[in-house]
From TrEMBL:
One of its GO terms (biological process) is DNA-templated transcription initiation. The lineage of its organism: Bacteria, Bacillati, Bacillota, Bacilli, Bacillales. Residues 106-158 form the RNA polymerase sigma factor 70 region 4 type domain. Residues 10-75 form the RNA polymerase sigma-70 region domain. Pfam families: Sigma70_r2, Sigma70_r4_2. Keywords: DNA-binding, Sigma factor, Transcription, Transcription regulation. GO terms for molecular function: DNA binding; sigma factor activity. Belongs to the sigma-70 factor family. ECF subfamily. InterPro entries: RNA_pol_sigma-70-like, RNA_pol_sigma-70_dom, RNA_pol_sigma70_ECF_CS, RNA_pol_sigma70_r2, RNA_pol_sigma70_r4_t2, RNA_pol_sigma_r2, RNA_pol_sigma_r3/r4-like, WH-like_DNA-bd_sf. CDD domains: Sigma70_r4. Gene3D superfamilies: 1.10.1740.10, Winged helix-like DNA-binding domain superfamily/Winged helix DNA-binding domain. This is RNA polymerase sigma factor. PANTHER family: RNA POLYMERASE ECF-TYPE SIGMA FACTO, RNA POLYMERASE SIGMA FACTOR SIGV. The keyword Transcription regulation applies.
Amino acid sequence: MECNHEVERLFIQYKNDIYNYLVYYTGSTDVEDLVQEVFIKVLTKLHRFEYKSNPKTWLFTIARHAAIDFYRKQKLKKLLSGKLFHFIISTEKTPDEALEASEDSRELYTAISKLKQAYRDVLILRGIQCLTGAETAEILGWSQTKVNVTMHRAIKQLEKELVHSAKGGIRRESFS
């Protein structure tokens, strides 16, 4: 119970500072979910905080990591909703779109097949099967951190493979 009171005290004392920091960090005023995420993490991690440093600096560190995670998730969502995997998932295509999707699909499969096994595993599970980081970690027997790092590296390597493919592949703009 004492932990909840401490989180409540920290929330009351620092919520505006965290909110303002996240507004400036993200460039958006729509950061309430991030603020909530910060204090949920505080609730789960408070028992590890030793008060050797200022709680405010600890909170800002958590806020920064929450914002970075948010951007990573947004980039992944954009990638998954973009042209790269859209043609695999989409079923409503004109004949021209189907032909283009088929060509893009072949290029994607070829590029994925050139990647090392760990990159292929994580791209297929996260990118094509749309599993969560936790589900992917469980399947592969990895930590979520390893899944996230490997996914980031796999996407970068896949971008290189596609950009350097013989036909030019799916252009780099698909990843932006």
